[in-house]
Amino acid sequence: MNPSILNRNNVNVLGNGDQAMIFAPGFGCDQTVWKSVSESFESDKQIVLFDYVGMGKSDIKAFDSDKYSDLSGYVQDLLDVCSALNLKNAIFVGHSVSGMIGLLASLQHPEYFSHLIMVGPSPCYLNDLPDYFGGFEKEDLIGLIDMMDKNYIGWATIFASTVTNNPSRPDVAKELENRFCSTDPVIARKFAEACFFADSREELPKVTVPSLIMQCSEDIIAPTIVGEYLSQHVPKSRLTYMKATGHCPHMSHPEETIQLIREYLGEVPSKVVDPAL
To answer: Which residues span the membrane (predicted)?
Structure first.
């Protein structure tokens, strides 16, 4: 193990199973968002939780503006954690942008992963009409990021409500808002730019690891048409439509999230990995 990586990314390993299960948080969040879901797998999996540099209890001194100017810096964080723990054939569960981070990591080191489970993923948030609808025009995203500079607390309140899109669960929106507010605004803006202006569409056909795309209903951040695009372009992928509304089912609907992950893992074989790797 590499203690410097484990400290840098605030890595926590729990559970009793032989197979590792990595839970990766989405934009502006830390590992605690997975608590309701990850706990249910502790009896039969080795649970790996971590924070990206700049989030949660990671080592903020390790934040490098150049490294984290695009998703490759966050991909490297994930690969570093896998390497430090010597993981092989781990189940990766990533929320939102972390779905793409896991997918991109699997292109470099497919041996680290047996399955990719992506909750509300999007390969590109920008519309590229007429061929692709990501949900946002460029000026919308520029306006969103400009608001982070001018009124970060106001941005956090509005964005948390937009992301959750679930009036019946104001507690989830408040929880998300609190996480945004606990992040350094400069780092949050850098992550937002890396996340919302990324375009991973060309990488999708290269994926070799079996994957599950969990598509929420009424998800403003990753609309249904985006999940369907992913399922059409990622080999060996399965698309599951959730009853959960909004963009954070692991927080608002943990029971359904757990059930669908368990159903998928019980039905889909792992990829064959060369035992010499």
So the answer is: none
Known catalytic residue at 58: no
Residue 1's pLDDT band, with cuts at 50, 70 and 90, is: low
Exactly one of 95, 115, 247, 250 is catalytic; name it. 247
- Write down the catalytic residue from 30, 51, 77, 219: 219
227 in Cβ contact with 184 (< 8 Å): no
Annotation marks residue 247 as catalytic: yes
Whether residue 170 is predicted with pLDDT greater than 90 in this model: the reply is no
Give whole-number Cα distances, 98 to 67, 129, 149, in Å: 17, 25, 24
CATH code of the domain in which 120 resides: 3.40.50.1820
Mean pLDDT rounded to a whole number for the chain: 92
Tally of CB atoms within 10 A around 255:
12
Q: State yes or no: is 219 an active-site residue.
A: yes
Domain count, the chain: 1
User: Among the options 38, 58, 80, 96, which is catalytic?
Assistant: 96
pLDDT band at 275 (very low <50, low <70, confident <90, very high): very low
